[in-house]
Here is the input.
Amino acid sequence: MSDAKPEIRLRGVRALRGPSLWATHPVAACEVELAPSLAARPPAAIPDLARQLAAAFPTLSAQTDSGDAAPPTAWASLVGRVAAALQTLAGMETGFVRVFPGLHGDAPQVAVGYTEDEAGVESLYEAEALLNRCLAGQPADAERAVAVLREIHCRVHPGPTASAILVAARRRGIPVRRFPGERAVQLGLGRNLRRLDGSMTDFTSVLATDLTSDKHRTKHVLSTRFGIPVPQGEVATSVEAAMKTAERLGFPVLVKPLDANDGRGISGRIDSAEALERAWEDAATLHEQVVVERFVAGRDHRVLVVNGRVAAVTERIPARVVGDGERTIRALAEETNLDPRREPMNPDRTLVPIPLDEITAEFLARTGRSLGTVPAAGETVFLRATANISTGGTSVDRTDEIHPRNAALCVLAAGAVGLDIAGIDVLTADISIPFDENGAAIIEVNASPGIRMHTDPDEGTPRDVAGAIVDWIYPPGSTGEIPVIGITGTNGKTTTTRLIAHLFRRTGACVGLATTDGIYLQETLLMEGDFTGPFAAGVILSHPQVDVAVLETARGGILRSGLGYDACDVGIVLNVTADHLGLRGIHTVEQLAEVKAVVPAIVKPGGFAVLNAEDPLVLPMRERTPGTVVLTSIAGEGSPAVAGHLSRGGIAVVVEDGGDGEWIVVHRGRRDGERIPIIAVADVPLAMGGAARFQLGNLLAAVAAAHVQGIPAEAIAEGLRTFIPSAASTPGRMNVMRTERGTVIVDYAHNPAAIRGLMEFVARMPGGRRIGVVTMPGDRRDEDLRELGELVAVLDYVVVKEAEQYRRGRPPGEVSRLIGEGLERGGLGADRRETVEFEDAALVRAMDLMEPGDLVVILADDVPAVLAQLAPLVSSNGAPPTGG
Here is the structure.
């Protein structure tokens, strides 16, 4: 090994919680940077590395998955496989590692699957540290890394009750959404969402949970109002009062804190004043009010009631050991605790370790034993007074044994306190005998009961109580879903998103909308800004009023965090052209297409992928979607792709000549199949009389989405007629305005394809001179800036703006220089262009240059500011007539 210390450094480690470029399931991803001394050497060439890794991970080799992989890619693969191996050893099976080679000098990237995002991210950091230790000649210390991951997993993994319910929900196909740092989980979406914390649902009454937290009040309601058998007792606030109550009731008695849970502070049988005084101290430390009640003999049962029916019955047996005549109680208990089902660091455990604490010692002392006692062979020794699973108890299923009258009384008890899901604690010698025949009593009613004793009993039949809870929340036949429509592409996303939302709003649906302008509920702006990533999707899908989610989905969010939705009913790809290339490892339009393809890839099997048949990068995505493909084309049935698609029974939305002009038409099936004319292009305001050709693709996609979601053709047509492009409805998207001297067009076009379409539209507009206010953010490539100049050189005069905040790291003057080179190349001389630094000043300059009948086209950066600056100049009669 050379003197220079080889190092691996991870950059940009992040959790992608939704579908992404790497996978349709969650992954943790990062870039892998290598020290120069390591970059040219594959892992297998490093002395002792293979031996160290084999010792830490017997199934892992230092050799890469691909023997001819370049060293940087091989190291990235090894980082991923070590991270995955660490997760596996920590009890989290992932089995997914994917590497993307670096292009254009970028470091390779690696993605690793995970079950918990915090653990997935940490596994990459631990893999980085472990490999660097190995490379420095130090021990791998995999055990420490695994312990760290186990701790994280146990801390963030849902408890056994929540886990079982989530599994049952996924089995039903109900969407599940979890949020980092939150205990509660969300089932379903939008107006169909429900929230749960353990077995407590958003149907659970706050009044009921408040009542059941007061054990004495609960007993009073059950006995005095409903005649349900409960132990007699009183609440005491001092040991003297407790003594008086015990004397009145007569020994044996039992004491417990007023709000006892999980068996904490519950005494067990008390037969003397001295024992009562000792038990009082334990209970009073947990609550200032203590219940003293008559002790009821019997076996401990938990009856689970879900929505007015008994879902399961379990007998709970206190923690115990069986003697062998040789070992102490402590040794027997320690051996019992070795059961993997009791492992504290196992998030899927179904039992809890037997506690060998003071309470256990005190309980044993009452029977003349200690933890050092050696029980006789076959002797059963109970270690706790209570049978709670949380204190080491075990369970036996008794669901088929409960007497119908007892079941009815338990249902009555749950209803008496108002709980939708309740755990009824019953003491009875035999659950199959009516309560009134054997002196049984209901001792507690619990909100948010645990269910692992029912799903994983130690003896008897496991019961699908999680399924019963899910069926209560979502009756069979309901899915918990709402229509989710995802829109992506390079150009036209915002306009298409707003148009689709408009079409659905007209049906009476409450629409949640995410765009580059903000997050909307109906037409009310909730948050302003560029919201095209997973955060906005999360807001909308978690809004309880939303009937339909319409989500503009940009490349940045997919690359940074993954999609904010797991699946969509309609996935739209409008087009793929050069934009933002050179950023986040995306250097080619083919790579950009891979990013955009994530949306159709997660269309539901019963959903629809709407694809532009005329885009050679979009059309192949039909092979990658599980949904039904719908093609769009402004070339009509003359498109070979559309013709072949229809011949195979497909659906297409096209522009075609209807004899009286162009029409938007839906075709279903073969050429002689169903043909549904929607509307004449000339009647669609967004198409500007057909002059805005680039809007036709947006219109076709919106019509396709509405059609496959069942909106009638007449309603679609009326929606298209009433969607008026303006600064209010589509800010910065082809806003055409009249001023006293001429026409102004404001558009957010910031890539060559969008600018080309805009210039084509400007050429069709009537008017005198064409004056442009143009720029492009400095993080675009040099060739993109030059191409902008070349495209806008068709104008008569150009004002180039170069505001400091949009240089994106370039030195002053470089953006305008590169655009100027393009203008020169396009034939626009220096006498017909100038540079103005700030956007507002550039706009003032253009308006000063404007003469009657001229047209000014503004490529806006700060759209709201530009529109506000123009507002005083705009005539009340709105947009001018368009050209042909």
User: Anything to note?
Assistant: The CA atoms of residues 299 and 527 lie 58 Å apart.
